[in-house]
Amino acid sequence: MTIGDAYGHDANYLxxxxxxxVIATDLNSDFLxxxxxxxxxxxxxxxxxxxxxLKDNSMDYILCKESYHHFPRPYAAxxxxxxxxxxGMIIIEPQDPISKMPLLLFLFNILExxxxxxxxxxxx
Length: 124
What we know:
Layout (H helix, E strand, L loop, with lengths): L1 E2 L5 H8 L6 E4 L3 H8 L5 E4 L12 E7 L8 H11 E8 L9 H13 L10
């Protein structure tokens, strides 16, 4: 099952890898309905990640790709995914590019403290 899969792209990817019985879910069905009609996905369900309508351990795996940061109550969504997933879950979130460059961030902070005019942030 995919969570927060507005257009069904994640479900379509899993189906292309011969994974059977993939259900795309989102809060809104507008795009998922169209995706199913054109054969992009096989199955979808309207689900609130913070209150899934599924039974405990009813899905083997849950994929939540680039949606988790949108949830107003992320811990409730995490609990629900743990409750519903029988084998496991995968949460993929966008990365903060500066976290990959800690040395650059360190140098920026030092230079800014020495003289804020050294680095012209408006041109970066």
